[in-house]
Amino acid sequence: MQEIVEVDSDRPQQRILVFDAPVRVFHWLLAGAFITAFALANLANEHGNGFIAHMLLGMVIVFMVILRVVWGFVGSRYARFGSFLFGPRETASYMSGAIGRAQTRQYVGHNPGSAWAILAMLLLFLGLGITGLMNARGSEAAEEVHEVLAWSVAIIAAIHVAGVILHVVRRKENIVASMVHGHKQGSPAAAIGTPRRWAAVAFVLMTALWAYALVDGYDRTTQSLTVPLTGTTLQLGEEEDNEAHIAPENRRDQDHD
């Protein structure tokens, strides 16, 4: 179980660095990518280019999540999953205090509610990637599970946002801004050393290269994708009928043959 890091009111408080750059960049890129992919899935024509964009964006999201999982083991103090593991009693105490009017602990890193929401969404995103891949291979059952997982992420994200708003209003602590600049109030001993900007740059570059490789590997004529690194071919849409592109006179010649 993790060591709980909370604000100690008996010690001098100051503005300290808590969230490193990779965590903050991932947070906002993932939020934007999921909102876009979710909107495309529900608004775009299932056989149109918008839905193809949804599937390609989904693969980018899974790639980002994989990078975040790696960073969860090698990143800075509050980026590591070890700081996310709160016990049932601590979680229940936090939730009851957040919903009621009892004073709850003020955490330097993620609080129990946010921590478990993040872990749940990461797992669901990986599930979305697996079911999306199975759907591209023709599994209708996977398509239904994929939709359930997508709505589960949307619901958890909505609850998470509501919790953040409640926290900001009741605690007068702008944790939204903290996920932009990375700073919170706390003891100097609780701060992380550096923002790890180099890792954030590497994260963005790798994600951009992966997105480019996906677009480059997509064939609009057949609506198929050659997955980078693996060489696997996925059918993302209905393959166009090649006979529609054959001139009428040539089609008659083929019929006579």
List keywords for this structure.
257 residues; mainly alpha; Fumarate Reductase Cytochrome B subunit; three-stranded antiparallel sheet; two-stranded antiparallel ribbon; 8 helices; globular
Please characterize this protein's 3D structure:
This protein has 257 residues and is mainly α. The chain has a single domain (14-216), classed as Fumarate Reductase Cytochrome B subunit (Up-down Bundle). It has helices spanning 21-43, 49-74, 88-99, 112-136, 140-171, 175-181, 197-216, 248-256, and strands at residues 14-17, 183-186, 218-219, 224-226, 233-235. A three-stranded antiparallel beta sheet has the order 3-4-5. A hairpin with a 4-residue loop joins strand 3 and strand 4 (224-226). Helix 1 (21-43) runs antiparallel to helix 2 (49-74) and helix 1 (21-43) packs parallel to helix 7. The longest helix has 32 residues, at 140-171. It is globular, with a radius of gyration of 23 Å. The chain starts with 13 loop residues before the first strand and ends with a helix.
